[in-house]
Design brief:
- The chain is α/β, with parallel strands linked by helices.
- The chain has one domain: Vaccinia Virus protein VP39 (Rossmann fold, 3-Layer(aba) Sandwich), CATH 3.40.50.
- Helix content is 24%, strand content 24%.
- A seven-stranded mixed beta sheet has the order 5-4-3-6-7-9-8, with helices on both faces. A two-stranded antiparallel ribbon has the order 1-2.
- Strand 3, helix 3 and strand 4 form a beta-alpha-beta unit.
- Helix 2 packs parallel to helix 3.
- The protein is globular.
């Protein structure tokens, strides 16, 4: 591909068939000749992060693989990057929509669907700070529907002073909704927890720590499960 190099990897997720995932060759890749990413606020240092396979994404994919497909359930992956979890859900027959703000995410998603012999999957531009496509400099399509399950991995990597992520989740969550976020023990978790509580979500946590093996490094992190239920009294 022009401007950057890629590689194809076979990814093993417990309980499901392996995936072939096309990713960037390494973190040094960069290509933004027309300044599209820069206009979205994506720096050259952070440009490549969408196109790498992250340990937390693999944990999220493994957890989604364990969830039975539910009729009429709609799932949204936020900040999907290479959308490994979305690919797992889509192949199982779930109604999954992947979303991200990086200008190349949709291209990589299409290529990875082809590599795995999968049909088209829903994708929407999802900038946490953009509430509608009518806002200045917004992409043509902004995620606007509501979902039963919202998932994401390693989303709390920087301070979210304005609370954009929690508001994005709340905007796209149905009145009854579960939210799964795999977090590798980032320090910004408490502030996000408070904002989710303000939106009516109760929090549960599960440790996902794993010792190193011959094929994978050690992992430390947790699955954050936020649940919002209607008061039926």
């Amino acid at each position: 591909m022009p401007g950057y190099a890629t590689k194809d990897e076979r990814i093993s997720i417990a309980g499901v068939d392996d995936l072939v995932v096309r990713s960037l060759l390494d973190r040094q890749q960069f290509s933004d000749d027309h300044g599209v990413a820069e206009k979205m606020g994506i720096s050259s240092a952070g440009w490549s992060l969408f196109g790498l396979i992250w340990p937390s994404e693999l944990r999220l994919a493994a957890r989604l693989a364990q969830r039975p497909v539910r009729a009429d359930e709609r799932i949204l992956e936020v900040g999907c990057g290479l959308a490994v979890a979305s690919l797992v859900g889509h192949r199982a027959g779930a109604d999954v929509t992947a979303s991200d703000r990086h200008p190349l995410t949709a291209l990589f998603l299409r290529e990875n669907l082809v590599l795995n012999g999968l049909g088209p999957m829903k994708y929407l531009h999802g900038d946490w700070a953009v509430e509608s496509a009518a806002e200045p400099d917004a992409a043509d399509v902004v995620a606007s529907d509501r979902y039963d399950l919202i998932i994401g991995s390693d989303l709390l990597y920087e301070r979210d002073v304005a609370g954009d992520l929690a508001r994005f989740v709340d905007r796209h969550a149905k009145p009854e909704c579960d939210v799964w976020i795999v977090d590798p023990d980032r320090g910004n978790r408490p502030a996000f927890n408070r904002r989710m509580a303000d939106a009516g979500f109760l929090l549960g946590e599960e440790r996902l720590d794993a010792a190193a093996t011959g094929s994978a490094p050690a992992y430390k992190g947790r699955l954050l499960v936020y649940a919002r239920k209607l008061d039926r009294n």
